[in-house]
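Example A, followed by Example B.
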Amino acid sequence: YVRFHLISPLIQQSAQNIVLFDTFVNILSHNLGEPAYEADVAQLEYKLVAGEHGLIIRVKGFNHKLPLLFQLIIDYLSDFSFTPAVFEMITEQLKKTYFNILIKPETLAKDVRLLILEHSRWSMIDKYQTLMNGLSIESLSSFVKAFKSQLFVEGLVQGNFTS
């Protein structure tokens, strides 16, 4: 079991940064779909989560091939690229996801409660409005570059691994 948290102070600076971060993580997951298929067949699991303060990478499975899967994820992260078509597809999916959260009273109530309790939190309405106002491909590219330049890493490795 390997879990790394790539923390960046950049994410919580604005609603636009949060939306760009969500877009980035979704495109990264999309890009990994085909290359990581063989790992899935070999019973290795991975998950990329857009956490509040950064990207959470979780990998688990048999230890002899786990570093290869983790390295694949890191390679795709460091050489991040996307096409305009993928960008459009992911932003449309995010619009639907955000809208679905907004129309459910229990999730909207949770969001409002957390907005009151947490110091620097952006509401789902802010994120949805930012996405509806439109994102540019250039803004995503510059955000990803800035994100990768301001990272703090926390990691946990459990299981049959040597130091």
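Example B, a separate protein, is given below in the same form.
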Amino acid sequence: RQFASFLMERLNISKEQRSEDDDYIVVFSRASNRLILNEAELLLSLAQEFKMRTVTVSLDEQPFDSIVRVISGASMLVSMHGAQLITSLFLPRGAAVIELFPYAVNPEQYTPYKTLASLPGMDLQYVAWRNIIEENSVAYPDRPWDQGGIAHLEKEEQERIITSNDVPRHLCCRNPEWLYRIYQDTIVDIPSFLEVLREGLKVKPNLKKSKPASTVHPGRVR
């Protein structure tokens, strides 16, 4: 949190001035891969479920400082798994991080943002949603290997990857099966998404009541 404040200061960003009833949800929009194919429907369902307005931010279309400014006043951040979720460190205390995972990608194996949200003093709620409906995903086997393409692999290996429904544990970050799955586009199944949120969010994201936790001092380095 000290680092986030320091960075905001250096970027000349003041905290969002919030009116009492202006809670809003931010959805990270991606332009070229890992798309949420029914983004408009997702935004509408979030607005209806939480009675908040929804806004999108995009690293492709907006400067970093304006994205940080928006996120620093949000009640909830929703995004596909990806490096852009590091911006959750700018969320105010009491906010929620909702991480979406494509088909066959197990949230239990990819937890940097869950870890970030649960660090002492962050005071963020975290929920992971996973697409379990294969028809709701679009993969791109013919793309370059570093964007999830698998055309360079032996036919047998391609077939094994395509028919698998769970990426096995692997080392970061060149594993072809991992890349193939993580670069899928996803149709978010709204009923299961809302059910996961209702179960996972212990309280409705509330920025007004959350007080900073006591200071945490790191242990001695060994």
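On Example B: The mean pLDDT is 93.
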